[in-house]
Amino acid sequence: MNNTINMDSNTPTAINPHRFCVIMCGGIGSRFWPYSREGRPKQFIDFLGTGRSLLQMSYDRVLPMVKKENVIIVTNALYADLVREQLPEIRPDQILLEPARRNTAPCIAWAAYHIHAIDPEASIIVTPSDHLITREALFQDSILRGFEFVESNPALLTLGIKPTRPETGYGYIQIGKEVAPDIDAVKTFTEKPDLDLAKVFVESGEFFWNSGIFLWRAETIINQLHRYAPNVTAVFDRGLSVYNTPEETDFIQKAFPGCVSISIDYAVMEKSKDVYVECVNFGWNDLGTWSALFDNSPKNKDGNVTQRCTVLAYESGGNIFAVKGEKLIVVDGLHDYIVADAGDVLLICPKSKEQGIKQMVNDVKLKCGDKYL
Amino acid sequence: MNNTINMDSNTPTAINPHRFCVIMCGGIGSRFWPYSREGRPKQFIDFLGTGRSLLQMSYDRVLPMVKKENVIIVTNALYADLVREQLPEIRPDQILLEPARRNTAPCIAWAAYHIHAIDPEASIIVTPSDHLITREALFQDSILRGFEFVESNPALLTLGIKPTRPETGYGYIQIGKEVAPDIDAVKTFTEKPDLDLAKVFVESGEFFWNSGIFLWRAETIINQLHRYAPNVTAVFDRGLSVYNTPEETDFIQKAFPGCVSISIDYAVMEKSKDVYVECVNFGWNDLGTWSALFDNSPKNKDGNVTQRCTVLAYESGGNIFAVKGEKLIVVDGLHDYIVADAGDVLLICPKSKEQGIKQMVNDVKLKCGDKYL
What we know:
Oligomer: homodimer
Shape of chain A: globular
Mean pLDDT of chain A: 91
Distance between the termini of chain A: 50 Å
Number of strands of chain A: 17
Structural class of chain A: alpha/beta
Largest interface: A-B, 32 and 32 residues
């Protein structure tokens, strides 16, 4: 296999024009309710108070490696305006609007067919829009190495994050034979192990977190989808003549809702023999829970995490305060709570009970209708 | 003594035109920060969610006994606009604007001099603007009986509330010899007893809560002030020719700030031999603390008190939620807290630590300046 690194690809002038990026941007972020809402999910929020939303950060992050016009945003039709507002520099035809929620496999399939119609030689990085990545220089090195690998091999490549703790909320990938530096065959996928198993995984050094970041050639993923998810490709093959034409939108409006709802992991990755994992070591967090956000955020001297608010804390620690808009919070005698203020909704909930937030959202819908969702 | 009740005085057509009401309306309500603010203290808030502020409720309450044009509002100059906005039906000259905070004796003295200049035969009820009174028919009977008493006697009459619990936050009045039905001489005043003493007080049946509601003739209180607080009357005597004239405002601007700051209780009531207490039994609460408000407010099925907000509570009770504007609060695992949301400030504090709020307000001033006060 060819794993030579093209040293020039690290500079903007040498960006490979066959490289594309698909940013998956359709999630609803209900676990961060009410800080994230159906109308403005997590990826559209400046979650870290940096002045850029998670989507904008995801976009910024790939620009050194992918030409601006090769970035494709796949999102729900509901969020079209938000995407346009947050990424005003991209063209309308770079935004693929899903008319229904169908999980990641149909999303990835559509994007692959669309990109393949633009450039049959395209290679693609697929990335979530709502994860946190630090040490971006390492990220960039990893992605460039990954592109080189998938451009030289008919492989599906997933990025595996070196685990730093026995996290029970993530999927793990067990690595097999090394096929290139830091790129290995996949032995097993394991979803959300219990704590004892997670500890064994971390200690073994053989298990990596499944990041949900993928690299492949458009042709490769379309071929693999044909083999492992023919019910998905059956839908998209009917539109082969329309991708990257004015008729694409109409076709998708009619065809997409007929797709099964299935994740790319379940549809392809866990079945294919052509899956490889690139073991990477940049900072990564899926920001999937308040506790994850707490653990990965800087604490102030009281041991609290504050998002966009000033907190005056008395005998209070271990809390996470997340506020929309400027606000002063004065708190006494509160430990290990989530305090999330969204203007018209205030949530106060122990961090240990955050798994109940989903039920709360259901209850709110039942009692108050949709206005607070 | 004459304690005949004029039965006609209970109907609007028979309101005695010599009867005046002074509503003291200058407090800053810092104990309810941030729900009450320096810019809009407690008395101007619709505290009970009835659609009328405590000031408006105080005004409404005296109208059956005092002609509308005989109601005088004494407030700080800062709150002139709030008073005009909340009581648009009263004339500008019915609002006395204190240029400085000087406690109740100077406030009451000025109002007495002002009213005496309007009507030398005036009798006056003096009432706070920020207390809660229920069973208003009993209140009305008590006030009418009080007016009759002070109009027939050169007496200072204070209303004593039959205590319902050994409250340690109130002043108590011990009653002496009965001089008319439910009207007694005063034996002692006791400020804020400890709990053991408060229990003895309540059990004895001899002690009543000092309500801060007074009745007297204008002439009587001016005479008594001359005797017991000559440093106060010395200030106001210099303006005898200006009360109820266009020059009054200018005079007060210059003279009032030179007054000592002293309460009417300390200046006169605790010293005078002409003080009587009318023992009354209407519902009364000074709403002086969050806990008092909690105790006196209806609880929902979870045992929480909610002010103007919808609360969805999970394993949470004994809390008081006070919110400016419409808001949904979702709370889990919180017991016996104050949660007060004022838009730009959120306070979360155990009810048991509410005495610390004053210090918090000081800390906020120090760290953030005046904008949150």
